[in-house]
Amino acid sequence: MPSETFNAMVLRQDDQKNTLCAVEPLGFGDLPNEDTLVKIDYSTLNFKDALAVTGKGKIVRQWPLVPGVDFAGTVVDTTHPRLAAGQRVVLTGWSVGEAWWGGYSQFQSVRGDWLVPLPEGLTTRNAMMVGTAGFTAMLCVDALEAAGVSPSSGVVLVTGAAGGVGSVAVAILSRLGYTVAALTGSDDPARHAYVVGLGASSVVDGEQWKTAARPLEGQKWAAAIDTVGSGVLARVLAEMNYGGIVAACGLAGGADLPTSVMPFILRGVRLLGVDSVMAPIEKRIRAWERLTRDLPLDVLETITQKTVRLDEVKSAAEAMLAGKLTGRVLVDVN
């Protein structure tokens, strides 16, 4: 091993069940007993990570825990038949950073079944610029296309368009020739300029998004990718064209859905749930290969607005939950 100890962010609970967060030195004997050891280069900050690190959401399922739901790095040692030492890999999902130790560490021991070999042309830094958010966005685009949506179908709405998933979704859809409308949830001109720079044809923020939708509203969208949930998703459903399709992947605005059956039985709207946590390996490999083709690498630099160290993750998490961050946050664990 390169050294006897390495740094990791560790979450612990005190007697009052408050979350304690600190960067600590760990030894290799502290790591889980799994089949593959990875030297991590980068992780990211996702909404779920922010909830875990700040203790503001019921995310952590074991204590102590090294958080971080994704990472990219190089295999140091493995007994997994599909992997080899020196191979560059990426991990997203599988409840890592929740039930299993995750990416906010310079080394991690994980199950080889969870790792995807990095496609040619993608560095570990690029991979984490994409991260769980970008991987989820690609799955959403895949779901829409599998359901028959194409650039000729009409306008595709992306909610939470200035966030991690939304940013990548806007960029991919634009690259593929779709007309994209962006909902950022903000009247900040800088955010509007940001999503237009990613390829959005219009920004649709308005007061109506802060009010409850009627069961059916005017038809506006051929398809949508929703990262927000709650009242925003209810309005999206109410505004879908006849036969419209919505890929839902997030709950930044809440887990409830205050809607009715009207969009489904009177307009034939379809709501597709998109899960990135337990997606099978074949779907993961296909999505990462598509990302190397359909997401321009120069766009990643635009999407990645901030890079932080391990000891800066908590303050970035607080800023994310306060709605003060745009795009992706890269975590350089070294």
Protein described:
This protein has 334 residues and is an alpha/beta fold. The chain folds into two domains: 5-118 and 296-332, Medium-chain alcohol dehydrogenases, catalytic domain (Quinone Oxidoreductase, Chain A, domain 1, Alpha-Beta Complex); 132-273, Rossmann fold, CATH 3.40.50.720. 29% of the residues lie in helices and 26% in strands. The chain contains nine helices and 15 strands. The protein has helices at residues 47-54, 124-146, 164-175, 189-198, 230-238, 262-266, 281-294, 297-303, 313-321, and strands spanning 5-13, 19-27, 36-44, 70-78, 88-92, 107-110, 116-117, 156-159, 180-183, 202-203, 221-226, 240-248, 270-273, 304-308, 328-332. The strands form three sheets. Strands 3, 4, 5, 6, 7, 14 and 15 form a seven-stranded mixed beta sheet that branches. It has a six-stranded parallel beta sheet with strand order 10-9-8-11-12-13, sandwiched between helices. It has a two-stranded antiparallel ribbon with strand order 1-2. Strand 12, helix 6 and strand 13 (270-273) form a beta-alpha-beta unit. Helix 1 packs across helix 9 (313-321), helix 2 (124-146) packs across helix 3 (164-175) and helix 2 crosses helix 7 (281-294). The radius of gyration is 20 Å and the shape is globular. The two termini are 16 Å apart. Residues 15-331 form the Enoyl reductase (ER) domain. It comes from Paraburkholderia sejongensis. InterPro entries: Acrylyl-CoA_reductase_AcuI (IPR014188), ADH-like_C (IPR013149), ADH-like_N (IPR013154), ER (IPR020843), GroES-like_sf (IPR011032), NAD(P)-bd_dom_sf (IPR036291), Zn-ADH-like_protein (IPR051397).
